[in-house]
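can u do me a favor
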């Protein structure tokens, strides 16, 4: 066993996390759901979403038999909604092609929508207690610093090197403890900023610490700045207090979720306003918010309008929703934010 894995396993016995919700009566399904939620999202943010989700969908069949709109309503606010859609797709594949039993084979797991090599490794290691490496953000940071890997981590050759390191350091036994320990050390001690090296079980052999470069690693390729797009939302409320939303059925961001009636051009928004029944009330104009996606930023400008006469617009998958119904559909975080502010 390498010194790295030995020190991590020893440390975990005393200090590691053992009572996260997905660790209680754990199984491969719980590990899968938690790992997908934890991609891009912090543990503390994930916990309430995970508890709600697992309560509603305690196993593969309950998830597979659900529908996309409902699953996305349980994902509302977590962002990166393709993760929720992929969970549903994969649950249906496991139900239909694997008798509702999660396979314990790396290649098979990796072939499912939304399961990459690291998530597959975590399912095997933590869920099945099978020896398999992981390389999530936390594990990557620990390995990069411990072995002082100086090349940018977003280069393919660095990723390959790190997978090799991850595999070489896997212990024969207690792989699940090792996996949890490296995740915990990355998340609690070897943090992105100000790593707490004095409390680290790896401090004695950590090359970055020895050479005082831990704050400089991991390195990344310089980022290109993201373009900004404008979006004009109309928050239309009718005389019954219902809100008009449109479903983003086309491919692209927020696919399958419900958003306000939106326009990329100010002119298109004003053309739409001119079609509303005369005498609508403008309640609030110019509520602004920003939202960042992986490839671009959105500047969102929102106008709240009250329509006192009958108005129907069923084009482009639009529907009126009352307040109770709004809690049961998939809404992107900025829509929830505007709704909380406005009604
Ligand atoms: S000693 Fe410091 S830099 Fe090295 S692995 Fe531990 S926390 Fe990270």
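np, heres the sequence
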């Amino acid at each position: 066993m390498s010194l790295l894995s030995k020190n991590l396993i020893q440390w975990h016995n005393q200090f590691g996390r053992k009572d996260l919700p997905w660790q209680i009566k754990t199984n491969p399904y719980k590990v899968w759901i938690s790992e997908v939620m934890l991609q891009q999202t912090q543990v503390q943010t994930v916990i309430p979403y995970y508890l709600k989700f697992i309560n509603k969908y305690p196993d593969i069949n309950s998830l597979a038999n659900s529908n996309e709109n409902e699953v996305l309503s349980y994902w509302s606010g977590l962002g990166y909604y393709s993760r929720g859609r992929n969970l549903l797709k994969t649950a249906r594949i496991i139900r239909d092609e694997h008798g509702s039993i999660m396979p314990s084979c790396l290649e098979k797991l990796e072939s499912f929508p939304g399961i990459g090599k690291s998530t597959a490794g975590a399912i095997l290691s933590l869920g099945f207690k099978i020896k398999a490496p992981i390389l999530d953000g936390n594990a990557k940071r620990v390995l990069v610093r411990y072995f002082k890997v100086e090349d940018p981590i977003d280069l393919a050759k660095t990723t390959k090197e790190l997978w090799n390191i991850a595999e070489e350091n896997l212990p024969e036994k207690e792989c699940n403890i090792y996996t949890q320990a490296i995740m915990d050390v990355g998340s609690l001690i070897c943090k992105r900023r100000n790593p707490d090296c004095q409390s680290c079980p790896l401090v004695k052999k950590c090359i970055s610490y020895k050479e005082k470069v831990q704050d400089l690693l991991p390195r990344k390729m310089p980022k290109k700045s993201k373009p900004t797009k404008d979006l004009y939302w109309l928050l239309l409320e009718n005389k019954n207090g219902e809100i008009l939303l449109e479903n983003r059925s086309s491919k692209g961001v927020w696919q399958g979720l419900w958003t306000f009636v939106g326009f990329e051009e100010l002119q298109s928004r004003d053309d739409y306003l001119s079609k509303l029944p005369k005498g609508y009330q403008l309640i609030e104009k110019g509520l602004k918010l920003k939202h960042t996606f992986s490839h671009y930023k959105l500047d969102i400008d929102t106008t709240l309008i009250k329509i006192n006469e009958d108005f129907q617009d069923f084009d482009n998958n639009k529907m009126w929703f009352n307040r109770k119904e709004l809690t049961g559909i998939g809404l992107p975080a900025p829509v929830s934010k505007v709704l909380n502010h406005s009604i």
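The chain has 15 helices and six strands. hope that helps!!
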